[in-house]
């Protein structure tokens, strides 16, 4: 996105929650952008269940769990860099896995960004939140700036945010792509899925990667995960 478009988006008060198709079905079923640390394990077509550890990112002592957004439609660089560990289910032993950039992209799958008007949801600018100047907040800010992100463009909510308040949705059209493109017609489908899950408790939405290019390749190789 060019500078002029970025300024226009921010003038219109749009904020984005960045995620990927690895987790979107969990978001549609819950109906909310939940607070950090509350998400369930996501199913990957090649690696099975993948868990995220908020405790490894911050201990959450200085300020409580938040839902995170940014006014930047571009995929945050801090979400392009992550550590992955394999865990032995019997011993609990953890081993750090070295991932090349392409492997990291394959782990995350296609990127998604869910857009909201900031005036429609209970968010405040991160610099205005009490956590910004705490020890944990400063550490988050410094680590973000180290990889080229601007934490002053982040927004946060102390409560889960209703997905039905979303007004835009964008995604990368390739597995390793980072360009976020408008997905025409998909926002209405997302709202329909959320409403269905609310009207019929227990409704299951399959992962968005079902039928994707990577899934078909894994099926052809006989290596896909089947839940």
Describe it for me?
The protein is of the alpha+beta class. The protein has one domain. The protein has seven helices and 13 strands. The strands form five sheets. A four-stranded antiparallel beta sheet has the order 1-8-12-13. A three-stranded antiparallel beta sheet has the order 5-10-9, with no helix packed on it. The N and C termini lie far apart (38 Å). The mean pLDDT is 82.
Layout of strands and helices, then pairs:
Layout: H1 3-11, E1 14-20, H2 24-30, E2 32-33, E3 42-44, E4 48-50, H3 54-57, E5 67-70, E6 84-87, E7 94-97, H4 101-108, E8 111-117, E9 124-125, H5 135-146, E10 154-157, E11 161-162, E12 168-171, E13 181-182, H6 186-199, H7 213-221
Key words describing this protein structure:
single chain; four-stranded antiparallel sheet; three-stranded antiparallel sheet; 21% strand
């Amino acid at each position: 996105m060019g500078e002029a478009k970025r300024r226009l988006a921010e003038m219109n008060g749009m904020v984005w929650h960045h995620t990927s198709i690895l987790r979107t079905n969990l978001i549609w079923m819950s109906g909310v952008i939940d607070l950090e640390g509350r998400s369930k394990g996501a199913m990957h077509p090649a690696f099975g269940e993948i868990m995220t550890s908020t405790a490894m990112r911050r201990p959450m002592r200085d300020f409580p769990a938040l839902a995170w957004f940014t006014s930047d439609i571009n995929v945050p660089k801090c979400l392009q860099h992550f550590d992955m560990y394999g865990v032995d289910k019997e011993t609990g032993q953890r081993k750090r896995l070295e991932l090349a950039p392409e492997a990291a992209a394959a782990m995350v799958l296609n990127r998604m960004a869910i857009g909201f008007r900031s005036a429609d949801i209970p968010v405040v600018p991160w610099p205005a939140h009490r956590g910004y100047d705490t020890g944990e907040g400063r550490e988050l800010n410094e680590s973000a700036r180290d990889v080229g992100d601007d934490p002053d463009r982040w927004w946060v909510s102390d409560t889960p945010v209703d997905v039905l308040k979303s007004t835009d949705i964008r995604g990368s059209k390739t597995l390793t792509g980072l360009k976020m493109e408008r997905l025409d017609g998909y926002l209405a489908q997302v709202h329909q899925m959320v409403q269905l899950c609310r009207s019929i408790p227990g409704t299951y939405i399959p992962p968005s990667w079902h039928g994707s290019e990577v899934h078909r390749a894994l099926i052809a190789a006989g290596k896909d995960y089947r839940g």
